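To the wet lab folks,

You asked to see what we're planning to order before we commit. Fair enough. Below is the target structure as tokens, and below that is the sequence we designed to fit it. If anything looks off to you, flag it before the synthesis order goes out.
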């Protein structure tokens, strides 16, 4: 039971990206191409910071869309495993697998139907301000803490996503303790700087994370189509990648 809950937390974290980008482009776009152009929809964002990479495959049917099982899914020749908890989800353990500046190719076979994709991971970038990746700030609950961020621009970057995660919340179980963080802020920018306001509700370590996205992601969120196809061939959806860096802000009394 605990293992299933841990996997649930990981998948919710991964799928929050799809909710974020859907909110950005569906609110201002119209369905200008037919949904029956392709049979399937694929969604995958490779992250340099993630210990697991995920590909999600759904049938392209608005009325009865569902996850697709039984597919052969490979990234650069590495076979992904079909998840036993979530239909249509394929994962691979990937510590050190996704590297800045590297090209990754996706191959999916569903019966005799072939889907392919390609992404180039943006080069690594350097956070210039704050100088230290771990800073400590004294504050009182209810205060607003201001953080100024600046970073160098790497090549192959489409845009940047900034997210702020709260200090961890832990759940006690009979045989273990599981901790997770809540996302309290998220936005995107094309600049190499951002001003962050953190409303202090709890003390502890807040994580400010910067994602440098590839051009596929930037083109996807700015697409004029209601059902874009970016970074993938013969499918709706997205195959993209991101380089990631972060700063830890410890807020104390």
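Sequence we intend to order:
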């Amino acid at each position: 039971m605990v293992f299933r809950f841990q996997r649930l937390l990981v998948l919710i974290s991964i799928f929050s990206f799809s909710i974020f980008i859907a909110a950005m482009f569906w609110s201002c776009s119209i369905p200008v191409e037919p949904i029956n152009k392709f049979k399937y929809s694929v969604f995958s964002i490779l992250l340099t910071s993630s210990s697991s990479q995920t590909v999600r495959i759904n049938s392209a049917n608005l009325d009865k869309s569902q996850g697709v099982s039984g597919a052969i899914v490979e990234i650069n020749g590495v076979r992904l495993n079909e998840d036993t908890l979530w239909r249509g989800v394929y994962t691979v353990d990937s510590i050190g697998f996704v590297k800045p500046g590297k090209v990754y190719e996706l191959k999916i076979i569903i019966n005799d139907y072939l889907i392919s994709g390609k992404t180039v991971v943006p080069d690594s970038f350097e956070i210039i301000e704050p100088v230290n990746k771990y800073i400590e700030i004294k504050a009182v609950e209810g205060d607003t803490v201001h953080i100024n961020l600046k970073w160098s621009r790497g090549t192959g970057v489409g845009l940047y996503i900034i997210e702020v995660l709260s200090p961890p919340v832990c759940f006690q179980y009979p045989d273990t303790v599981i901790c997770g963080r809540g996302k309290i802020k998220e936005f995107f920018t094309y600049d190499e700087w951002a001003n962050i306001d953190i409303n202090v509700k709890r003390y502890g370590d807040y994580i400010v994370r910067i994602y440098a996205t590839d051009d596929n992601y930037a083109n996807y969120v700015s697409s004029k189509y209601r059902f874009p196809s970016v970074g993938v061939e013969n499918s709706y959806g997205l195959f993209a990648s991101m380089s990631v860096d972060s700063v830890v802000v410890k807020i104390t009394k």
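Structural context that might help your review: Residues 1-15, 17-32 have pLDDT under 50 and may be disordered. Residues 2-121+225-239 form one domain.

Thanks,
Computational group
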